[in-house]
Amino acid sequence: MPNFICTACGMQYSESAQPPAHCVICDEERQYVPPRGQTWTTLEALRGSHTNTFLEYETGIIGIGSVPAFAIGQRALLLRTGHGNVLWDCVATLDAATVTLIKGLGGIDAIAISHPHFYTTMVEWARAFGARIHLHAADKQWIMRNDPAIALWDGETASLWDGVTLVRCGGHFEGGTVMHWAHGAGGRGLVCAGDILTVTTDRKWLSFMRSYPNFIPLSVRTVEHIGAALAPFAFDTIYGHYFDRVIAKDAKAVVQASVARYVAAVEGKRGYA
Prior knowledge:
- The chain is of the alpha+beta class.
- The chain has a single domain, classed as Ribonuclease Z/Hydroxyacylglutathione hydrolase-like (Metallo-beta-lactamase, Chain A), CATH 3.60.15.
- It is about 20% helix and about 25% strand.
């Protein structure tokens, strides 16, 4: 039986003879069911209609994204660290060319995902590369396809190995996670943020939301917590969830300034009505 994939969010479900009656992820306020209604596909069908494209940002960091864009349209990142390769976030399309290319780069040792909207076909990726999937336990209710490869972690931080740390920021989802790589960005440190911290269109600021399609903001307390969660870490670069959403330098100062700007706007200070 097939594992059906929601075309609106990219979530892959457990095997079933028929598509699910609805997508649990899209029915929730942080996502949406398109006006056309709920539709489904499979990985086999995606392999006939989509491929992946790759972009090397710097040595050891490669972006991976579906062409044409599928579902939410995010791109994943392959980080080649000194202790192993990490797939950060996930895209639904996984074809033979992608597997061959990544195996040529050393495979994938661990998969870490920021939040449920980007779980997609994570189980397919884990099985293709023999990797463990690291998800925050606070979001376990949103796992639509269980598998022994999934390892839940709890608390505020978790180390994959030396220099690579998962940080629970919360916000967009209760278990919303970013990943800090201390040796990335030429040793200055980097953060892979998904859209837990959203890089804005001008790539000069960050913003924070509970629901992006439904424009539901986060509270001041929650956004201040995000800033506090990242305060102990040194980093110069932030990678967002689209190919072009990268803050290349002074990213820690951008986090601090963006939290302050968000709080001022929500509280109506400094010229904000």
